[in-house]
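Module 6 notes. Inverse folding takes a fixed backbone as the condition and produces residue identities as the prediction. Think of it as a translation problem where the source language is geometry and the target language is the twenty amino acids. Below is one complete input and output pair. Work through it position by position during the lab.
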């Protein structure tokens, strides 16, 4: 309630329409209303401010943001999209990468190629890796946004006090974690049963030349040497993680380092900007960032989102016009400068203004030179959930990591994960 009142007052003071913060379904007389669905948080709050620019330039358009908790967002989107044309709640939806196949195969989102061609948008500025992830059968269904990789955050003052240096290899990371575990802390690790655990595990897997699915047979390949190495590294990290890590998502792991409860840890790139906020961080001016150290050149596991248009929108052209503005290099840079938001636009990722303001962008850029993603097929996404449970089991028990991984492999023997 306090947050709503605060935002309301800000908008009233600015002399602007309250509809940008209004709930779904509220209309503004004489205007076309577009409602966008995304998860709530500081990035959403800043995006609301950016949306004012669009409405100021397009007084016939009223943009409404329905920003809610991530856990309930997917089901709310699907419920809306399954309604008849004009009866749904949303016009634009923020789609998590692992939902992409489901949304496209069920016809939840519109293909965008004709709109892109008519608008003459230069698609070369976007990461071609992420564009491919948002495409099926040669058609584009969403603009990639908010790519996410895990990076390492180090409290340089704490390390210097103990005569420690920033590790160059994974073995050195584990040795440093062991040292601090013996001192009562350890590495801050997002080891709960969720996406960050598989992001970290997968970075080891991919960097070793491994992958999940044999493209020729659809067979799961967690019995490879690369997978066994990756799960051993995960097991070692779990062994020397700070107390609480098995219940932590990336937010809590990042917070532990930011509040100087852990000397170093894993941080989602999208949260690294908080390390520079005086009112939220105890490590301002004494923090360093590095990619996850791997034995071979890093191939990061990247999660990503995509902005798509709901198939049942009554205003597809207006929705696309707004979407094209929202994901343009100019708007992306504005959002990145506000809060360090990561981007799938190459020019923005390499922008010197952003790099100067947010030092962690160098680690993000290096981590994103070579990326792969988790399986997005329906069966593949099901397997990923099972793997997340296995990685959490390793974090919470003393079972042998390779044995736990072998159980996942056995469960999916004979399953074609391409489906």
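Target side of the pair, the amino acids:
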């Amino acid at each position: 309630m306090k947050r709503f009142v605060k935002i309301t007052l800000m908008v009233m003071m600015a002399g602007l329409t309250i509809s940008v913060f209004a709930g779904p379904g509220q209309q503004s007389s004489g205007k076309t209303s577009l409602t966008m669905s995304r998860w709530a948080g500081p990035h959403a709050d800043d995006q609301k401010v950016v949306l004012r620019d669009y409405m100021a330039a397009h007084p016939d358009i009223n943009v409404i943001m329905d920003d809610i908790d991530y856990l309930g967002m997917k089901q709310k989107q699907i419920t809306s999209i399954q309604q008849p044309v004009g009866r749904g709640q949303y016009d634009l939806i923020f789609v998590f990468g692992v939902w992409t196949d489901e949304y496209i195969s069920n016809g939840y989102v519109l293909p965008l190629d004709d709109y892109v061609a008519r608008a003459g948008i230069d698609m070369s500025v976007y990461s071609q890796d992420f564009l491919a992830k948002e495409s099926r059968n040669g058609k584009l269904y969403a603009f990639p946004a908010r790519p996410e990789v895990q990076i390492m955050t180090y409290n340089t003052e704490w390390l210097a006090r103990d005569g420690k240096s920033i590790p160059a290899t994974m073995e050195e990371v584990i040795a440093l974690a062991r040292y601090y575990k013996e001192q009562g802390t350890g590495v801050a690790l997002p080891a709960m049963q969720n996406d960050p655990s598989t992001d970290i595990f997968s970075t080891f897997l991919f960097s070793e030349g491994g992958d999940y699915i044999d493209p020729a047979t659809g067979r799961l390949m967690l019995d490879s040497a690369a997978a066994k190495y990756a799960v051993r590294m995960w097991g070692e990290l779990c062994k020397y993680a700070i107390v609480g890590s098995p219940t932590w998502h990336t937010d809590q792991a990042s917070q532990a380092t930011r509040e100087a409860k852990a000397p170093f840890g894993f941080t989602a790139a999208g949260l690294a900007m908080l390390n520079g906020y005086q009112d939220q961080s105890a490590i301002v001016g004494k923090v360093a960032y590095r990619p996850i150290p791997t034995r071979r050149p890093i191939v990061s596991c990247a999660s990503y989102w995509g902005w798509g248009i709901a198939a049942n929108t009554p205003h597809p052209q207006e929705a696309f016009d707004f979407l094209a503005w929202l994901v343009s290099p100019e708007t992306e840079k504005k959002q990145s400068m506000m809060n360090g938001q990561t981007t799938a636009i190459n020019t923005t990722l390499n922008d010197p203004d952003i790099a100067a303001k947010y030092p962690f962008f160098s680690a993000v850029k290096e981590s994103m030179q070579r990326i792969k993603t988790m399986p997005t097929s329906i069966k593949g996404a099901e397997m990923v959930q099972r793997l997340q449970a296995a990685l959490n089991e390793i974090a919470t028990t003393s079972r042998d990591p390779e044995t736990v991984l072998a159980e996942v492999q056995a469960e999916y023997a004979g399953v074609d994960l391409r489906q």
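Reference fact for the lab report: Residues 1-28 have pLDDT under 50 and may be disordered.
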